[in-house]
Design goal:
There is one protein chain. The protein is of the alpha+beta class. The chain folds into two domains: 288 residues, 2-methylcitrate dehydratase PrpD (Orthogonal Bundle); 125 residues, 2-Layer Sandwich (60s Ribosomal Protein L30, Chain: A). The strands form two sheets. A four-stranded mixed β-sheet has the order 4-3-5-6. Helix 8 runs antiparallel to helix 9 and helix 21 packs across helix 22.
C-alpha cells in the first residue's frame, strides 16, 4: 500500500462541508488556544531575540508577526509565528503521537491564509488537513521516533504544515503528494537532545516546521517533485519512517479510520506552560492550595508519585544552569513555582521566578517517585498523586488521574479565553472579541480580519 499517496489524496480533498461538526468545533478551540500561546510566548526574552534576528534579515513583505505591529515576508513570519506557538510549552498535543500539531500548522493556516486572502472555511480545511497528516505520521512511530532522538513536533509537523499549505494553495492530490515528498527532504531533524539539555533553540522547531512546510508546498506548486513514497520508503530503506525510528513503524496508523475518525478530536489543550507530564502534579498541588490553609514555610516535604515515563522525563531537579526550557520539564520546579504563585503561566518561565530563592528552596523538598500502581494504569491515564507533608505532621493529598485539557476532561471556550487573558494581559472584553471571531471563523470571507485583531500594540 502507498500510505503517502493515500494520505495526500485525503488531505487534498478535505472539504469543510464534509468535516464533522465536532471536529470543526475542536479546530476552532485549538485556534483560540494557539492565539493565547502566541501572546504568552512574547514575554520570553528568547522569543524576543528570535524576532530581532529574523526580522533583521527581512527583505520586505506584509505578512503579520502575530501579537506585534511587525510585518515581514511570509516564510519569516511563519517561522516566528511557529516559534511563539511553541515557546511557552502550552501548545496543544496528542498523547499517542507525542507531537504538538498547533506549533507547525496554525502558523501556516494564518500566515499563508493571510497572504492568499483565504476565507475562514479554507483555513479550517487547512487546519484539519494539517492535523491529520502530522498526527497520523507521528502516531505511526510513537514512541520510538522520540526514543530514536527526534522531536515529532518539528519532523512530523513539517508534513502537517506542507499538507495545510497545499490545501490553502489549492493543490490537487498529485501536487500534494509532491509537497509531502518535498517536506520529507527539507524537514528539520529536531534533535531531542536540545530539549533534554534545556537549550533555547528548542523553541524554534514549530517555526522551522511551518516555514519548511510552506516552502515544500510552494515548490510542489511550481513543479518540483518529491519522492512519492516518502513515508514508507522503498527497498533502499530510505523512507522517513525507516530512517527516524529504531523500531518497525506501524504504518497502518497513517490510514486507519482516515475520513471517519478525525485525529484533531484526540488533541488535548494545556492549561499550564509546561510539559504535559507535569500537569497532573501541578493541578493536584494547586487544588490542594485552593482547598487548604497553609503557608509555604509550613511545608516539610512534598512527594510526587507518578507513572514511570513522567518520573524519567520530568523528574529532574533544579541545577545552577537551569534554563526556562529545563524549567518546563521539571516537576520539582513547576510544582514549587505553582504553589508560590498560585498558577503556572508565562510569568513562571521568567528568570525572576526561576532564580527566586524561595522557589529553589521549596523545589529541594520535592521528591518524584515512580509508582507501580500509577504505572499500571498508564497510558490510559496519566495520573499523579501529590502528598504535601506539613511540619505539624498533617499530610495533604490529591491525585489527578486525567489532567485538565484531555478530551475526557476538556477545557471549554471560557477557560481557553481566560487562558488568553492571563497570558496576554489584555482586557477581558478584547480577548472575548478575538475568541468570538475565531469561533465564528467560517463566516469570514477574508482571514485577514482575524489576523488584524491578533496583531498587537507593541513593536514586539
Amino acid at each position: 500500500m502507498n500510505y503517502t499517496r493515500e494520505l495526500a489524496e485525503f488531505t487534498a480533498n478535505v472539504s469543510y462541508d464534509k468535516i464533522p461538526k465536532t471536529s470543526i468545533e475542536k479546530a476552532k478551540l485549538c485556534l483560540v488556544d494557539y492565539i493565547a500561546n502566541v501572546y504568552g510566548s512574547l514575554k520570553l526574552e528568547a522569543v524576543q531575540k528570535v524576532i530581532d534576528f529574523m526580522t533583521s534579515i527581512n527583505q520586505g513583505g506584509f505578512s503579520s508577526v502575530l501579537g506585534t505591529k511587525l510585518s515581514t515576508n511570509m516564510t519569516i513570519a511563519a517561522f516566528i509565528n511557529g516559534t511563539t506557538a511553541e515557546a511557552i510549552e502550552a501548545q496543544d498535543g496528542v498523547r499517542f503521537g507525542g507531537n504538538h500539531p498547533a506549533s507547525a500548522i496554525m502558523p501556516v493556516a494564518l500566515t499563508l491564509g493571510e497572504y492568499l486572502y483565504s476565507s475562514g472555511k479554507k483555513v479550517i480545511e487547512a487546519v484539519i488537513a494539517g492535523y491529520e497528516a502530522a498526527n497520523r505520521i507521528a502516531a505511526s512511530m510513537h514512541p520510538f521516533h522520540t526514543l530514536s532522538g527526534f522531536l515529532p513536533t518539528g519532523t512530523c509537523g513539517t508534513f502537517g504544515a506542507a499538507a495545510a499549505a497545499a490545501k490553502l494553495m489549492g493543490l490537487d492530490s498529485r501536487k500534494t503528494l509532491d509537497a509531502l515528498g518535498n517536506a520529507g527532504y527539507i524537514l528539520p531533524i529536531s534533535m531531542a537532545e536540545h530539549l533534554m539539555g534545556g537549550h533555547a533553540i528548542k523553541i524554534v522547531q514549530g517555526g522551522q516546521a511551518a516555514s519548511a512546510g510552506i516552502i515544500a508546498a510552494g515548490l510542489a506548486s511550481h513543479g518540483i517533485e518529491g519522492f512519492p513514497k516518502v513515508l514508507e520508503g522503498s527497498d533502499l530503506k530510505g523512507g522517513f519512517t525507516q530512517i527516524t525510528s529504531k523500531a518497525e513503524p506501524k504504518l497502518e496508523r497513517i490510514t486507519e479510520g482516515l475520513g471517519s475518525h478525525y485525529t484533531i478530536e484526540d488533541v488535548y489543550i494545556k492549561p499550564f506552560t509546561a510539559c504535559r507530564h507535569t500537569h497532573g502534579s501541578i493541578q493536584a498541588a494547586l487544588e490542594i492550595l485552593q482547598e487548604s490553609d497553609f503557608k509555604i514555610e509550613d511545608i516539610e516535604s512534598i512527594d510526587v508519585f507518578t507513572y514511570g515515563v513522567a518520573a524519567l522525563a520530568v523528574g529532574r531537579n533544579m541545577s545552577p544552569d537551569f534554563s526556562f526550557v529545563s524549567a518546563q520539564f521539571s516537576i520539582p520546579y513547576t510544582l514549587s513555582a505553582a504553589l508560590i504563585a498560585g498558577q503556572f503561566g508565562p510569568e513562571q518561565l521568567l528568570n525572576s521566578s526561576i532564580n527566586n530563592p524561595e522557589t529553589i528552596s521549596l523545589s529541594r523538598k520535592v521528591h518524584v517517585i515512580a509508582d507501580d500502581e500509577l504505572n499500571k494504569i498508564y497510558p490510559d491515564k496519566t495520573a499523579s498523586r501529590v502528598e504535601i507533608s506539613l511540619k505539624s505532621g498533617k499530610k495533604l493529598i490529591r491525585q489527578i488521574d486525567i489532567p485538565k485539557g484531555d478530551p475526557r476532561n476538556p477545557m471549554n471556550l471560557q477557560e481557553i479565553t481566560a487562558k488568553m487573558q492571563l497570558f496576554s494581559g489584555k482586557p477581558e472584553a478584547e480577548c472575548s472579541k478575538i475568541a468570538d471571531t475565531a469561533m465564528n471563523i467560517e463566516t469570514l470571507k477574508d482571514i485577514r480580519r482575524l489576523v488584524t485583531m491578533i496583531k498587537g500594540g507593541s513593536r514586539h
